[in-house]
Amino acid sequence: MTVARQLTINNEIATVESPDDEPLLWVLRDRLNLVGTRFGCGEGECGACTVLIGGRPVTSCSIRVGDVSEPVTTVEGLASPDGTLHRLQQTILDLQAGQCGYCISGILMRAAALIERLGADLTEADVRLELDAHLCRCGDHTRIVAAVLQAASIKQ
Ligand code: FES
Ligand code: FES
Question: What total of structural domains would you count in the chain?
Fold first, then answer.
């Protein structure tokens, strides 16, 4: 059954109509046109669809929209409202840490949450462990890890 609901997404209230059991990923992409969040495996295995819910990384293909009760942040909400990129977006660009880019939005979300949590204390081992949940078919892992470490070292 389709029901109307309100979600807080990227600090704005969005009203959507969808069944409770529709994956959040489809609500974001198909109903709200937030297509920066990618569909990869659809089974919680690749990390491409990762968003933040209540500040924690969640694969949006594996959560029902009816179970979402905290604010959602997608890659479209990572930059500042004035358009200034998040420091991790900037270091990924600076280090060219992406080829096709398909995996990058999910990695950005999980790694941004990690930087938020650990800041400059972040180690390479922390990054590798955390990003183990993400596949990158282009094999850009080394540059991605370097970009995360560089972003974490930037004073805010
Ligand atoms: S599409 Fe969600 S984890 Fe792969
Ligand atoms: S940059 Fe292509 S999948 Fe990661």
Answer: 2
Residue type present at position 45: E
Estimate to the nearest angstrom the gap between the alpha carbon of 123 and the chain centroid.
Answer: 20
In tens, the pLDDT along 103-134 reads 999 999 999 999 999 998 999 999 999 999 99
> Are residues 60 and 105 located together in one domain of the fold?
no
Give yes or no: residues 142 and 110 share one domain.
yes
Q: To test ligand 1's pocket by mutation, which of 27, 59, 102, 137 has the most ligand atoms within 8 angstroms of CB? A: 59
Domain region containing 144:
87-153
Integer angstrom CA distances of residue 133 from 10, 45, 46, 122: 23, 7, 7, 17
Q: How far is the CA of 107 from the centre of ligand 2 (A)?
A: 10
DSSP alpha helix (H) spans, 51-140: 87-94, 104-118, 124-130
The pTM score is: 0.96
* Number of other residues whose CB lies within 10 A of the CB of residue 135: 18
* The last residue of a domain, from among 53, 77, 101: 77
Q: Helix or strand or coil: residue 56?
A: strand
